[in-house]
Design a protein that fits this description.
The chain has 79 residues and is of the alpha/beta class. It has one domain. The protein has a four-stranded mixed β-sheet with strand order 1-2-4-3, with helices on one face. The chain starts with a strand and ends with a strand.
Length: 79
Protein backbone atom coordinates (compact mmCIF):
# COMPACT_ATOMS: atom_id res chain seq x y z
CA UNK A 1 0.00 0.00 0.00
CA UNK A 2 1.20 3.53 -0.75
CA UNK A 3 0.92 5.77 2.31
CA UNK A 4 1.34 9.54 2.38
CA UNK A 5 2.19 11.21 5.68
CA UNK A 6 1.48 14.93 5.58
CA UNK A 7 3.18 16.84 8.37
CA UNK A 8 4.21 20.47 8.11
CA UNK A 9 7.07 20.01 10.60
CA UNK A 10 8.44 16.64 9.43
CA UNK A 11 12.20 16.87 8.91
CA UNK A 12 14.98 14.36 8.31
CA UNK A 13 16.57 12.95 11.45
CA UNK A 14 19.76 14.96 10.87
CA UNK A 15 17.82 18.05 12.01
CA UNK A 16 15.80 16.36 14.72
CA UNK A 17 16.90 12.82 15.69
CA UNK A 18 13.64 11.98 17.46
CA UNK A 19 11.46 12.90 14.48
CA UNK A 20 8.25 10.90 14.97
CA UNK A 21 7.11 10.96 11.32
CA UNK A 22 10.40 9.35 10.26
CA UNK A 23 10.08 6.66 12.93
CA UNK A 24 6.47 6.00 11.96
CA UNK A 25 7.48 5.78 8.28
CA UNK A 26 10.20 3.23 9.09
CA UNK A 27 7.71 1.00 10.94
CA UNK A 28 5.28 1.19 8.03
CA UNK A 29 8.06 0.40 5.55
CA UNK A 30 9.10 -2.65 7.60
CA UNK A 31 5.49 -3.83 7.32
CA UNK A 32 5.83 -3.70 3.52
CA UNK A 33 4.27 -0.32 2.72
CA UNK A 34 5.69 2.42 0.50
CA UNK A 35 5.75 5.70 2.43
CA UNK A 36 6.14 9.30 1.29
CA UNK A 37 6.36 12.16 3.77
CA UNK A 38 5.15 15.58 2.58
CA UNK A 39 6.52 18.50 4.61
CA UNK A 40 7.28 22.19 4.50
CA UNK A 41 10.74 23.07 3.21
CA UNK A 42 11.68 25.06 6.31
CA UNK A 43 13.12 23.43 9.41
CA UNK A 44 11.00 24.61 12.36
CA UNK A 45 12.88 26.49 15.12
CA UNK A 46 16.19 26.42 13.25
CA UNK A 47 16.87 30.14 13.52
CA UNK A 48 20.45 30.86 14.43
CA UNK A 49 21.27 34.30 15.76
CA UNK A 50 18.06 35.89 14.45
CA UNK A 51 18.56 34.66 10.88
CA UNK A 52 15.79 32.94 8.93
CA UNK A 53 14.97 29.26 9.46
CA UNK A 54 16.91 26.72 7.40
CA UNK A 55 15.18 26.15 4.06
CA UNK A 56 15.80 22.78 2.41
CA UNK A 57 14.97 24.17 -1.05
CA UNK A 58 17.44 26.50 -2.71
CA UNK A 59 16.48 28.49 -5.78
CA UNK A 60 13.11 28.95 -7.47
CA UNK A 61 11.88 25.35 -7.23
CA UNK A 62 8.38 24.78 -5.84
CA UNK A 63 9.20 21.39 -4.35
CA UNK A 64 12.09 19.01 -3.80
CA UNK A 65 12.18 15.22 -3.59
CA UNK A 66 14.74 13.53 -1.39
CA UNK A 67 15.49 10.14 0.15
CA UNK A 68 16.88 10.19 3.67
CA UNK A 69 17.56 6.90 5.48
CA UNK A 70 15.43 5.16 2.85
CA UNK A 71 12.43 7.43 3.48
CA UNK A 72 10.96 9.35 0.55
CA UNK A 73 10.41 13.03 1.40
CA UNK A 74 8.73 15.71 -0.70
CA UNK A 75 9.35 19.20 0.61
CA UNK A 76 6.96 21.94 -0.46
CA UNK A 77 8.56 25.39 -0.68
CA UNK A 78 7.52 27.85 2.00
CA UNK A 79 9.16 31.12 2.90
Amino acid sequence: MNIWLINHYAVPTEYYPLARPATFAKYLMRAGHEVTIFAASTVHNSRNGGKANINLIKGDFLYKEDYVDGIHYIYIKVV
